[in-house]
């Protein structure tokens, strides 16, 4: 969606970090892309960062680079000290040349979060396993701790040598620095643990060693945790003391993160209110500038806030409050590389919908990262924009859901004359339903972006136009056709499924369920879970969010200054009873790794009953009769029954395209409803466009596409 007309004056005010002058207050935060360890990492990473530098980024922080082999979280990480890393990082350091952007190298150590394969490979302060890797780490010896400190210093020196503008120490989200800080993971009783002062020593020594390694005037950022959101978390006074000690050790900026990866509190998902965690960064800013020992140099140390800020207008509100100096936005730069430039131009922004599906979900298992709503992200080499091979050629895209919208956008961007045909009166496909679900409102922003972008690119959109077999003239003279007609609900063979109180999920989303007091949903995949959530939740504010997860208020006493509809959800009190059923398997199977637990937990908290390992016997006027594994029968009472038990492809036009021998691609659900999700749909739309336009880079192995 376009940013509002109001000026973003606070964002576009220049600022300095140490001796580094930056053109604005938005930091492109660190994102691991899953290619850092690849042989061609330099080329891919440089293309990724350069596109964002050209799009107006100011300070860019790379994904974490492991300071040693045992510091890497998995095999996809780059390891400093190797010749491959030096070659790759030389290209990365030069990626911002000729732009206003500057790039910082992030120094990383996973500690007990590393996914080691052999005993002793994973190291930590103490032998305390995590829920992330489930491997008991080996406790570092006292001298080995000093070796790790030296590795961070060596990495910083390398960054300066190669031409980076700054370094950032990764000390948050539960990685090694946090593991030394916490009494839960640091059980030592030597010079590196035993009390708060000794637990802080590791991070402070790293900061001091990095400062000495790069010398005065070279910016050092330190990413630290403002709130662990873990049981037995450190008191706020210890967090303040650590921040003050880092500044005293020579750190030029504090980048404040929240939450460990094993925390039971969501921090980045769509269910988190916008800017909910800003208060912890504001608290640290107040702390380091408001003590009796504050000096002019200390007061000048900028503090960076982040976590769930996906719009520039929200960042502007945060900065206008004066509590922090910069705002870090990571995934929004995946969704739209030109987000900052568009902020200056008031252009339409492809908003990050905080789904996690192609970014964080992949990153945590070492897969290659991209973006659901922008499948070019991370694949800039394969899908270039420096040629127009489709110039003046006519293309038709049939279907205006995710796959069709992206195919039309990409074909038009490559120079094609594109006609997009959509049977409904609005683009968006199943995103039209997703945006109704509390916590997924931003899916509507995706539709709005594509409506604007397709118009800008000159795509001719034909709404309410369903293409039939007799419409051969629509496609007869096309250079290529993308068939993206999607899916329709699968019918079920359950006695009683034709009763008047039974509807499929499409009708339930389109027309609602009236005043039903009890609803039984047959099928508990992503669509069933979304529908159950829609029936039992409504948007709520940040205070509700923190009450729900039992998080104490932020140190500054406010949750967020962002005044817009929150994406968090709270339980309804209308008494609607919802039962979510599936024959076998997990409820919500197929939902992303880092979001499924949030949605399932919310349904449980709302009293939604979930049933699995059953057989459907019949649907009656009173509900759904099921048979359990022990052979007993049970009636699930329901005023309305919704069938959400799968999908079938809608590809009726495939024979026509084959008969006319028109070059074409069938994408998304029209190709196959099996394991269908929006990540696959957008990615297949992109690939189809490049294949039909002849724009794919020859000789490039893209590993099966952006999806």
What would you note in describing this structure?
It is a single chain. With 707 residues, the chain is α/β, with parallel strands linked by helices. It folds into three domains: 15-350, Alpha-Beta Barrel (TIM Barrel), CATH 3.20.20.70; 394-488 and 651-693, Rossmann fold; 491-554 and 565-645, FAD/NAD(P)-binding domain, CATH 3.50.50. It contains 22 helices and 29 strands. The strands form eight sheets. The chain has an eight-stranded parallel β-barrel, surrounded by five helices. Strand 13, helix 13 and strand 14 (417-422) form a beta-alpha-beta unit. Helix 5 (196-214) runs parallel beside helix 6 (236-248) and helix 13 (402-413) runs parallel beside helix 22. The longest helix is centred in the N-terminal third of the chain and has 21 residues, at 142-162. The two termini are 24 Å apart. The model is unreliable at 1-5 and 697-707 (pLDDT under 50).
Structure described in brief:
With 707 residues, the chain is an alpha/beta fold. It is built from 22 helices and 29 strands. It has three domains: 15-350, Aldolase class I (TIM Barrel, Alpha-Beta Barrel), CATH 3.20.20.70; 394-488 and 651-693, Rossmann fold (3-Layer(aba) Sandwich); 491-554 and 565-645, FAD/NAD(P)-binding domain (3-Layer(bba) Sandwich), CATH 3.50.50.60.
Keywords:
707 residues, alpha/beta, TIM Barrel, Rossmann fold, FAD/NAD(P)-binding domain, 3 domains, 8-stranded parallel beta barrel, 5-stranded parallel beta sheet, 22 helices, disordered N terminus, disordered C terminus
Topology:
Layout: E1 15-17, E2 20-22, E3 26-28, H1 41-54, E4 59-66, H2 83-93, E5 102-108, E6 123-124, E7 138-139, H3 142-162, E8 166-171, H4 176-181, H5 196-214, E9 220-227, H6 236-248, E10 253-258, H7 278-289, H8 296-299, E11 303-305, H9 312-320, E12 326-329, H10 331-335, H11 339-345, H12 360-363, E13 394-398, H13 402-413, E14 417-422, H14 431-434, H15 443-456, E15 460-463, H16 472-475, E16 480-483, E17 487-489, E18 502-504, H17 505-511, E19 518-522, H18 526-536, E20 537-539, H19 542-548, E21 569-571, E22 577-581, H20 596-605, E23 609-611, E24 614-620, E25 623-628, E26 633-637, E27 640-643, E28 647-649, H21 654-660, E29 664-666, H22 678-693
Parallel strand pairs: 3-4, 3-12, 4-5, 5-8, 6-7, 8-9, 9-10, 10-11, 11-12, 13-14, 13-16, 14-15, 16-29, 18-27, 19-22, 19-27, 22-23
Antiparallel strand pairs: 1-2, 17-28, 20-21, 24-25, 25-26
Helix pairs in contact: 1-2, 3-5, 5-6, 13-22, 18-20
């Amino acid at each position: 969606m376009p940013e509002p007309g109001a000026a973003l004056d606070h964002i576009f005010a220049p600022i300095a970090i140490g001796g580094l002058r930056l053109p604005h207050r938005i930091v492109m935060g660190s994102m691991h892309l899953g290619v850092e360890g690849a042989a061609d990492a330099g080329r891919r990473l440089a293309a990724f960062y350069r596109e964002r530098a050209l799009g107006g980024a100011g300070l860019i922080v790379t994904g974490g680079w492991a300071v040693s082999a045992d510091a890497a979280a998995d095999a996809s990480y780059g390891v400093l000290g190797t010749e491959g890393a030096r070659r790759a990082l030389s290209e990365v350091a030069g990626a911002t040349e000729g732009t206003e952007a500057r790039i910082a190298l992030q120094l990383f150590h996973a500690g007990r979060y590393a996914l080691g394969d052999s005993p002793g490979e994973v190291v930590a302060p103490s032998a305390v396993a995590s829920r992330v890797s489930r491997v008991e780490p080996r406790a570092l010896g006292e001298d080995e701790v000093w070796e790790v400190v030296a590795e961070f210093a060596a990495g910083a020196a390398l960054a300066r040598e190669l031409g980076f503008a700054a370094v950032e120490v990764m000390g948050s989200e539960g990685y090694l620095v946090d593991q030394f800080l916490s009494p839960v993971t640091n059980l030592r009783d030597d010079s590196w643990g035993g009390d708060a002062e000794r637990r802080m020593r590791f991070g402070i020594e790293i900061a001091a060693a990095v400062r000495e390694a790069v010398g005065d005037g070279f910016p050092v950022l330190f990413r630290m945790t403002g709130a662990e959101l873990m049981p037995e978390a450190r008191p706020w006074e210890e967090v303040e003391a650590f921040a003050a000690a880092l500044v005293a050790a020579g750190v030029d900026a504090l980048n404040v993160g929240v939450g460990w990866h094993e925390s039971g509190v969501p921090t980045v998902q769509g269910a988190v209110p916008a800017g909910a965690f800003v208060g912890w960064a504001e608290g640290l800013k107040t702390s380091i500038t408001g003590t009796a020992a504050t000096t002019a140099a200390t007061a000048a140390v900028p503090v960076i806030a982040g976590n769930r800020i996906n719009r520039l207008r929200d960042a502007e509100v945060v900065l206008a409050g004066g509590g922090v100096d910069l705002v870090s936005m990571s995934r929004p730069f995946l969704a739209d590389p030109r987000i900052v430039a568009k902020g200056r131009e008031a252009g339409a922004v492809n908003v990050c919908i905080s789904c996690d599906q192609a970014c964080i979900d992949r990153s945590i298992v070492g897969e290659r990262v991209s973006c659901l709503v922008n499948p070019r992200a991370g694949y800039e080499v394969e899908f270039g924009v420096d040629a127009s091979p489709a110039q003046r050629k006519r293309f038709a895209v049939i279907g205006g859901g995710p796959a069709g919208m992206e195919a039309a956008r990409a074909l038009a961007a490559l120079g094609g004359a594109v006609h997009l045909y959509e049977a409904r009166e609005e683009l968006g496909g199943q995103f039209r339903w997703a945006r109704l679900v509390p916590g997924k409102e931003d899916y509507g922003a995706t539709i709005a972006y594509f409506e604007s972008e397709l118009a800008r690119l000159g795509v001719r959109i034909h709404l309410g136009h369903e293409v039939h077999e007799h419409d051969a003239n629509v496609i007869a003279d096309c250079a290529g056709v993308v068939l993206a007609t999607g899916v329709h609900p699968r019918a079920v063979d359950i006695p009683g499924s034709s009763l008047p109180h039974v509807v499929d999920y499409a009708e339930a989303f389109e027309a609602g369920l009236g005043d039903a007091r009890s609803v039984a949903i047959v099928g508990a995949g992503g669509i069933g879970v979304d529908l159950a959530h829609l029936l039992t939740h409504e948007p709520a504010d940040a205070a509700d969010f923190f009450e729900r997860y039992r998080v104490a208020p932020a140190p500054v006493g406010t949750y967020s200054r962002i005044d817009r509809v929150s994406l968090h959800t709270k339980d309804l009190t209308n008494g609607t009873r919802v039962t979510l059923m599936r024959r076998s398997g997990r409820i919500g199977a197929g939902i992303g790794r880092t979001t499924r637990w949030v949605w399932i937990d919310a349904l449980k908290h709302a009293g939604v009953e979930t049933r699995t390992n059953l057989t459907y016997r019949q649907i009656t006027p009173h509900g759904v009769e099921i048979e359990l594994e022990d052979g007993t029968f049970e009636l699930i009472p329901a005023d309305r029954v919704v069938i959400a038990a799968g999908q079938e492809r809608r590809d009726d036009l495939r024979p026509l395209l084959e008969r006319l021998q028109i070059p074409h691609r069938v994408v998304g659900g029209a190709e196959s409803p099996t394991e269908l999700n929006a990540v696959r749909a957008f990615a297949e739309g992109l690939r189809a466009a490049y294949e039909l336009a002849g724009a794919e880079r020859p000789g490039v192995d893209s590993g099966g596409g952006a999806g």
